[in-house]
Amino acid sequence: MLSALDLARRVAAGTLLPRDVIDLCAKAIAIREAEVGAFTALDLEAARRDAQPELARLPLCGLAVGIKDIYDTADLPTAYGSPIYAGHRPKTDAAMVMLVRRAGGIVLGKTVSTEFAGLQPAATRNPRNLAHTPGGSSSGSAAAVAAGMVPVALGSQTAGSVIRPAAFCGVAGFKPSFRMLPTVGMKCFSWSLDTVGLFAAGIADVAFAAAAIGGRDLRVDGREPSAPAMGLLHTALWPEASADMQEAIERAARKASAAGTQIREITLPAVFDEAAQAHATIQDFEASKALAFEFDRHRDRLSPALREQLDKAAAISPLAYDEARRFARRARQAFGTFMADADVILTPSAPGAALGSTGKPIFNRLWTLLGTPCVNVPGLADPAGLPLGVQVVGRFARDRNALEAALFLERALAR
Amino acid sequence: MLSALDLARRVAAGTLLPRDVIDLCAKAIAIREAEVGAFTALDLEAARRDAQPELARLPLCGLAVGIKDIYDTADLPTAYGSPIYAGHRPKTDAAMVMLVRRAGGIVLGKTVSTEFAGLQPAATRNPRNLAHTPGGSSSGSAAAVAAGMVPVALGSQTAGSVIRPAAFCGVAGFKPSFRMLPTVGMKCFSWSLDTVGLFAAGIADVAFAAAAIGGRDLRVDGREPSAPAMGLLHTALWPEASADMQEAIERAARKASAAGTQIREITLPAVFDEAAQAHATIQDFEASKALAFEFDRHRDRLSPALREQLDKAAAISPLAYDEARRFARRARQAFGTFMADADVILTPSAPGAALGSTGKPIFNRLWTLLGTPCVNVPGLADPAGLPLGVQVVGRFARDRNALEAALFLERALAR
Predict the structure, then answer these.
(1) What is the pTM of this model?
(2) Is the ipTM of this complex over 0.85?
């Protein structure tokens, strides 16, 4: 994989040119893209033209970035993973695309999204094992980073669409606090849940990228991360995790403990179970409005699975939706109190390693609803060598703490 | 003006056809549009084609609706009030446009918005007095309803862009609770503040339209509104209201009191002053991201005022923004407690009657930030006959109560 931080340091030091980074990407793409299928659009020539030496002075140092095809781009086709939008050229770049450019990043291409970032699997294959899914919905972004085709990629998460594919592909994934990064110009599925996310090789890389793009103090490189107070979460969902995943979490806890962190077993109060149930109500009610044009005008060009999901969603009453939002608000308020004694929570990123479909978001949706920062920490694998991701969940707006705890854990796992 | 409720009742009863409603609109447009300039696009032929008799069975009964040109429409040009988007045809209808269609409404045309719904005045004139502004940013929607050219119109409010033009034009304006109606497909200025709003002739009309489009129990017609517990708010801003406006508010309070409501003088705790200050920080920080493409790529085609606003906004730090968001969160939580003894607040909709510019949003921005429902109640005027709007502010998610209190006040003023 291409380490964003390492490349940026070399570009800043003048020992590597932005154009050389594009060449590194192009080389990996030439070798892997045909079998992985991470991109829907690529413009290496434009990227080379954009890769001017003076980008070395900007925060992203001219690094190439893959953009999930759910973000509008004025100079590359944007199809949101749907045949309805095949060949669509938006008039405007999404805010995140502009923030990447302002930070001195280069848009290398658009990466595969599932249909409107939903559950219908896309054709991208997992670079770790081509017989498996890369996860979804940010399938192409996770795969492109895992295959070393790009050092940074943008994704989005409405249930588990950043953390899960990061886990399946064995890369660092970061879902910041809700609304820390703008969703303007991103195709909407659920306005209360859609969250911008980032992929990179390791934790320090993804923190560097988030800091550079968001203009915030999020970097965790350069000094030893302090040991976080960690809560090990056994939810009612624990039996849904595979034996390998359960073992991976226990192992991560042991390693973190050996590295000096305090680990405490915690259980979630019932208010959070209600909130997790509310996720689907909020997501689907909003999707039935957000995708109203596609549903009413292009019903025959939706996948059967999405059509069925939206059919059911049409029956959700505003009252049920309002009640779900109240559950969510209560849980958000309760989470601060609940986390008084822990910096972060340690919990699975997914039920297990990559499977045939895009995988279930059951270990992610509560945190998306709460809007808390989540980080997938790579480094563990099942006996077949498929990555197993462990998830670090932080407190709202404490993104730097969550990233630092994730780095601490990443280092502990590597020992 | 065209009463939405009256027209809908007649269409539902079969004494009027949806096509007849279009004819009523067309007649007023033929007489007034040349001098008022409320529309950027009109398609009366398409509206007549769409006006099928069976719409009478749907909630909006085939009523014609004006759509602020900040909402995407696939079959009418959408320019967001900016020359950058002249002739732009989005690929998709905004969610609100689809909700209007699903409810059985007919899109009659697009109404004038100021540039990206900002402060730069547009060319629309106030139908009550052509020498005056209709207010902004929903200039065309307020003017179209006031001139009887359309019974219902959509607007949007980021600071005071629904309540203020409603007040200046002497129509009912309703800004629902934040996120009750979807902003998907609306050009974003500030994702934490942009709120969908509605215009109609009177309070029962705007409540009817909101109920029909939103699928919620918001109608207030059909029975006598109960007397609300009303708080009369003298903020630190009170001296900013004109003598006419101060007198109008006192008169509204006296009339409401005479009609049987309890009125209590209230003052806002300091936390709300801080929150009101936070509004500009949040709005401008987000605008500098949301309009990044336009600012970076089409700087010369922005108005000087917006360019200057975005230039200044670029200097707002993420830390200042985060602090402003914390103020806002605290104020939202405090508002519920503050309103324990009052159903609604009575306060000016604007500093006075319509002036030369789009007017100041100082009496609106706090409520937009808090996300509370606001209603402009028409019925009063200054000595020159220009409308003076009084504002009813309700509790979050208690939209029906706010509308009922507004209806109570509207009737009291008419006595």
Answers:
(1) 0.97
(2) yes
